[in-house]
Design goal:
By secondary structure, the chain is an alpha/beta fold. It folds into two domains: about 80 residues, no CATH class; about 280 residues, TIM Barrel (Alpha-Beta Barrel), CATH 3.20.20.100. Helix 1 runs antiparallel to helix 2. It contains 14 helices and 15 strands. The strands form four sheets. Strands 6-7-8-9-10-11-12-15 form an eight-stranded parallel sheet. The protein has a three-stranded antiparallel sheet with strand order 3-4-5, with no helix packed on it. The protein has a two-stranded antiparallel sheet with strand order 1-2. Helix 9 links the parallel strand 10 and strand 11. The two termini are about 35 Å apart.
């Protein structure tokens, strides 16, 4: 069983630092041999302490004869370790192109796409005039935004975004979604969206807001939406396949069922720490080299009961203070996400554009501050659900 013990240590190191490290650790395998962990001079002391703590937990499991296949071990620990740890931010797994005065570009997994670290959510132009829509799209383009995401459920956003984006279509990436779970319904909605958005293809097409395991079963059934997705990709109507999900349970099941190109998921500091919601999904998506897209970076939490809802286009309470919004956005962008999609309110979107041009990854001290802040705030999502 000593092989398992050594593997645990290596696996934890990979989770925490993205690579194996070694130096004298004080840890020993089941043969009493010291496990070496070199080159850890610059590793924060609280990370080493955490490594010892997690090692003891798994060593207890092993010595109690809890034996599992390596694949099952990785699957289970990938969901457990992030909830125990601070899960340090790490951008080493994505390509970054820094542009002075503009929003940086990041690699979107294995798609070959380099997209702006801020994406344009279609709700920004929902209920806007033709002139307002054109102006908001142009402003985003001027900041360096080249990723646009919309859905049929966003009111008249498709109708407004199509004409506004048409002059720039060849230079940007366009993503769309469907919340239809059956094959024929998904095909109908896909064709309608292509027409409204004045394009012959989507760069990313996504299952929208998958929440329940029943939804997942329907999607992958004989007459499920995945049939439409695969056929549309063969026809060149869509180039990359993805999904958005609002529960860890649904996201993990989707990740098991199919090798999607992208995931759009709420990665928010309060949900991450106070709701145990997000780390386990990000880790598996990262292992699969998917393009990771973030929702709710600038969310504070649910609207308090009886509170006046001052932001019409947000069903949750957003971070409206500039400094709070900066910290929320920077927390998310300090993790290996290709892009964050800000709230659909046009003023908050404009704030995100300005904040993102000055982005610098948070250090350990700043991340720890966010963890403390999160523990005093009600999260928008929790894992498990219920």
């Amino acid at each position: 069983m000593f092989v398992i013990s050594d593997f645990i240590v290596r696996f934890i190191q990979l989770l925490l630092y993205g690579k194996e490290k070694s130096a004298a650790s004080g840890l020993r395998n089941d043969f009493g041999q010291e496990i070496r962990l070199e080159k850890m001079n610059n590793v924060p002391a609280h990370h080493l302490k955490l490594l010892h703590h997690i090692f003891k937990i798994f060593h207890t499991l092993v010595t109690n004869q809890i034996v599992m296949k390596r694949r099952d071990f990785i699957s289970k620990t990938a969901m457990t370790i992030p909830m125990l740890s601070m899960f340090p931010a790490d951008l080493s797994s994505i390509g970054r192109e820094l542009l002075k005065g503009k929003i940086e570009k990041r690699s979107l997994g294995k798609t070959g796409m380099n997209i702006s670290a801020i994406g344009f959510g279609g709700i920004v132009v929902m209920n806007a005039t033709t002139e307002q829509s054109a102006a908001r799209v142009k402003e985003a383009i001027d900041f360096g935004v080249n990723y646009f995401d919309v859905a049929p459920t966003y009111g008249n956003a498709e109708e407004m975004l199509g004409p506004a984006l048409e002059p720039y279509r060849k230079d940007v990436y366009l993503a769309c979604k469907t919340n239809q779970r059956k094959k024929d319904d998904a095909r109908r909605e896909l064709e309608e969206s292509l027409e409204k958005l004045r394009t012959d293809h989507f760069d990313v097409y996504q299952l929208h807001a998958v929440t329940s395991l029943e939804d997942v079963d329907t999607i992958f059934s004989e007459n499920g939406a995945m049939k439409t997705f695969l056929k549309a990709r063969e026809e060149g109507l869509v180039r990359n396949l993805g999904f958005s999900a609002h529960s860890v349970e649904a996201a993990l099941e989707l990740l098991k069922r199919f090798d999607f190109d992208t995931i759009l998921f709420p990665f928010n500091y309060t949900c991450w720490y106070h709701g145990d919601f997000g780390p386990q999904v990000m880790e598996i998506a990262k292992q699969k080299q998917m393009g990771i897209l973030a929702l709710k970076a600038m969310a504070k939490g649910p609207w308090p009961e009886g509170a006046e809802r001052t932001v019409e286009k947000a069903w949750y309470e957003p971070l409206t203070d500039n400094e709070d919004a900066r910290k929320g956005l920077y927390f998310t962008l300090s993790h290996p996400v290709a892009a964050a999609i800000p709230p659909g309110d046009e003023n908050l979107f404009a704030m995100a554009l300005r904040l993102a041009t000055d982005f610098k990854p948070m250090d350990d001290e700043q991340i720890l501050e966010m963890k403390k802040k999160a523990m005093n705030t009600e999260p928008l999502f929790r894992y498990p659900m219920g």
